[in-house]
Write a structure and sequence with these properties.
Structural class of chain B: mainly alpha
Order of helices and strands of chain A: EEEHEEHEHHHEHEHEEHH
Largest interface: A-B, 39 and 25 residues
Shape of chain B: globular
Distance between the termini of chain A: 31 Å
Strand content of chain B: under 5%
Helix content of chain A: 25-40%
Radius of gyration of chain A: 18 Å
Shape of chain A: globular
Oligomer: heterodimer
Strand content of chain A: 15-25%
Order of helices and strands of chain B: HHHHHHHHHHHHH
Number of strands of chain B: 0
């Protein structure tokens, strides 16, 4: 499980996160974090993954204090993530991207003799994963030649490739049309349940499609934490999202 | 040249083999010497290519490993301390590993410009130490001469140009096989991943420091192998082998040959050393010409000679497919 305890983050005089505490159980409900721009959502992700260190508070991963552990060690413990802005290996093909993700935690990742392509069980794994994501036909295409929607899917593939126990998705549908977004949300819903998802989502429709639990961040604080129905009817949340229709 | 078909590949390697194994040894002595030096230099450029071309670490200190291995050979042989070629090579490479493991632990923590400046600084310190502090050992500016060709304990004497050429050919072949295997292995793919997007590699769980560190040490060892051969080949070692200008030359040759391509280092060493040889016969202004070549490559042939050749090959096969 993932536990965030009294996390604070300041950038100079600017307080971005204030007293954030929550727990995500393995196999627990899918958590969606929403909040207006600048609420501190991505900063929170970066603190959980270790790209940023908190100004105060602690992060626990599987009851281990990882507040000071580097990113790659947290990934090895079973924490995966995707990025809001697609962050891939642009000159590699879809297949090469996937293999690079798949081998990240394999014991042979430091081997120097056999070519990576000769590890056939890896190519099989990649095939299963890509077929699931719907990119198998595009496996030999370099990322540069893909459409934006397809790049988004590779982004998700890389998140899944390391077979994390907890996967953080940072706006998985950012920049997609609303029909593409819902399609991708549908795919995300079918992911295996022993992997706990924590999703940042901007699109309310997608957020309410995916959420089984919601946290609302506002000005760096947790405004509300509860199931989607509670969030929808919460007067404080409605005030923040004044004028927006909540999850129709 | 990854687009060659299987049959074309066989023909290409067949011809290359015949050229290197049969024709070069039958060619005039100056030609054998020239090709020998090109092969040695291409090992050196290959090491820089592993580090810079494949991993994205631009080092200005590659000469430090080439030079210190060469000096180790020079000191050990000229003082008659050790006579066994294999032991001398081993000791030289151990020194290179110690040097690179020490400097690497510091330099690899930094990125881009800072890495370049640190490797430059370390290299310059080693140069200054060889030039001044250890003068009694290195004979400073004068360098160490009279390095005799090695005795391999084989029936063939290395005193002859031809036999020494074969030794260099075998060692260069080994070095390039090692690089070839590495860049296709899981380790090598991770290096290229680090070059293209280190941020993502970290998020995936790669310990990128360890990869870069191992690559730095590996590159140093390959560079050291080149340095060892060079000391025996040239029979004379001076501080310019440690100088950052020689580190810069590695980058220059890599650019001319094609950064991050397998054949780039060989082509770069060939064009650079070959041109230098011919041009020097007519004019003293090699450095000016070198500069012009470099500018032309950067402006018009970003892929270097390797990129140019594969583009040419692509167009030719395209045309023949149409015709």
């Amino acid at each position: 499980m993932l536990k965030v305890e009294k996390v604070y983050k300041n950038f100079g005089a600017l307080q971005v996160l204030r007293d954030i505490s929550f727990t995500v159980e393995l196999g627990g409900p899918r958590l969606v974090i929403i909040g207006p721009n600048g609420a501190g959502k991505t900063t929170l992700f970066n603190i959980i993954t270790g790209e940023l260190s908190p100004s105060g508070g602690k992060v626990y991963l599987f009851s281990r204090d990882v507040t000071k552990a580097p990113c790659h060690r947290r990934a090895h413990l079973g924490l995966g993530r995707t990025f809001q802005i697609v962050d891939l290996f642009p000159d590699f093909t879809v297949m090469e991207n996937t293999l690079l993700g798949l081998q990240a935690h394999e014991p042979f990742r430091f081997h120097m003799i056999r070519p990576l392509t000769s590890y056939t069980h890896m190519t099989e794994k990649a095939r299963t994963l890509l077929e699931r994501i719907g990119l198998w036909e595009k496996r030999d295409f370099p990322i540069n030649s893909l459409s934006y929607g397809e790049m988004r899917r590779v982004e998700l593939t890389l998140g899944l490739a390391i077979e994390p126990k907890i996967l953080l998705l940072d706006e998985p549908t950012a920049g997609l049309t609303s029909s593409e977004s819902l399609e991708l949300a549908g795919l995300i819903q079918t992911l295996r349940r022993d992997m706990t998802l924590v999703v940042i989502e901007h699109d309310m429709k997608v957020a309410f499609t995916l959420a089984e639990r919601m946290i609302v961040l506002h000005h760096g604080e947790i405004l509300a934490d509860g199931d989607p129905e509670q969030i929808r009817t919460n007067p404080k949340v409605r005030e923040v999202y004044l004028g927006e229709r909540m999850g129709v | 040249m990854g687009i060659l078909a299987q049959k074309e590949k066989l023909i290409f390697f067949g011809l290359l083999g015949i050229l290197l194994i049969v024709i070069v040894p039958l060619s005039p002595r100056y030609m054998q010497t020239l090709i020998t030096s090109i092969l040695i230099v291409s090992i050196y450029v290959g090491s820089a290519n592993l580090l810079t071309g494949y991993t994205g670490l631009v080092s200005l200190g590659q000469a430090m490993f080439w030079g210190s291995a060469a000096y180790m050979v020079a000191i050990l042989t000229s003082r008659g301390l050790v006579h066994n070629f294999y032991l001398i090579s081993l000791l030289s490479l151990i020194m290179v590993v110690v040097l690179s493991a020490t400097f690497g632990a510091l330099a690899v923590r930094t990125k881009r410009l800072y890495f370049m400046i640190l490797t430059f600084a370390f290299g310059h310190v080693v140069w200054a130490v060889a030039m001044y502090s250890l003068q009694t050992l290195t004979q400073g500016f004068n360098g160490i001469s009279d390095i005799r060709r090695p005795d391999l304990g084989l029936p063939w004497s290395m005193e002859g140009h031809r036999n020494f050429y074969y030794l260099v050919l075998v060692v260069a072949g080994l070095c390039f096989t090692v690089v070839y295997l590495i860049i296709r292995s899981p380790f090598g793919r991770a290096l290229v991943g680090i070059r293209d997007n280190e941020h993502r590699m970290v998020a995936l769980g790669y310990n990128t420091f360890l990869y870069k560190y191992l690559c730095y040490v590996l590159g140093a060892v390959i560079s050291g192998v080149g340095g060892i051969l060079y000391a025996y080949f040239n029979g004379y070692v001076n501080p310019s082998e440690l100088h950052w200008l020689w580190s810069g030359d590695a980058l220059m040759m890599m650019f001319i040959g094609g950064v991050g391509t397998f054949w780039g280092p060989v082509l770069g060493a060939l064009v650079y050393t070959g041109l230098r040889y011919w041009v020097s016969a007519y004019t003293r202004y090699w450095f000016g010409i070198e500069g012009v070549i470099f500018i032309l490559v950067v402006l018009f042939f970003r892929g270097g000679a390797a990129g140019f050749l594969s583009e040419l090959q692509r167009r030719l096969s395209h045309r023949s497919a149409q015709g």
